From TrEMBL:
GO terms for biological process: regulation of DNA-templated transcription. One of its GO terms (molecular function) is DNA binding. The keyword Translocase does not apply. It comes from the Bacteria. Belongs to the TACO1 family. YeeN subfamily. It comes from Aneurinibacillus migulanus. Residues 3-74 form the TACO1/YebC-like N-terminal domain. This is Probable transcriptional regulatory protein AF333_08695. Keywords: Cytoplasm, DNA-binding, Transcription, Transcription regulation. One of its GO terms (cellular component) is cytosol.
Amino acid sequence: MGRKWNNIKEKKASKDANTSRIYAKFGKEIYVAAKQGEPNPESNRALKVVLERAKTYSVPKVIIDRALEKAKGGSEESYDELRYEGFGPNGSMVIVDALTNNVNRTASDVRAAFSKNGGNMGVSGSVAYMFDSTAVIGLEGKTADEVLEILMEADVEVRDILEEDEAVIVYAEPDQFHAVQEAFKNVGITEFTVAELTMLAQNDVTLPEDAQAQFEKLIDALEDLEDVQQVYHNVDLGE
């Protein structure tokens, strides 16, 4: 499980060099979530999840407010939610989630990113069965035993609790995302190092050095696409 957290850390660490891209993606995701229900996180659980994630990436309030105001203003702009599955070098597995207002453009761009970087697109279901949808919540300042006690007192069940790199990482079912956070907030913990609904590979793989370099180019190419929101994979990127 620890290697899975390493991959999430790698994604968060890359944010520093790509803030404008990350913020733009969050702006779109916040807008879409707000349009799907009320633009109020207290009554719109999907929006609340996105805003919690945005907080851990330090998305500026102006970006969030702009997206919410756009949704409240009745914008007719609409996006389709798409998921692509494919394979990278040495049979590595990749899932790509996108929000797009042009399905043909996005499909073409994703396919090109795979083909130019040693990969190929797969059919729906060819990869996803090897991943588990998972809530991942991390915090500092507590031990794993203390976190377990907090969650037990709140009667919240989780998959696993691990101490890693001065943080405690909680892995739970997606429908427990809010319950885990509320349990912590009820004891005064309001800051989280990570708060993600993600797809975690059931088994990570390690690639040879040359294949890993190519794989990282593939992931970068996919994440650079305007319509791509999230990229998940089963490669251990190491430290």
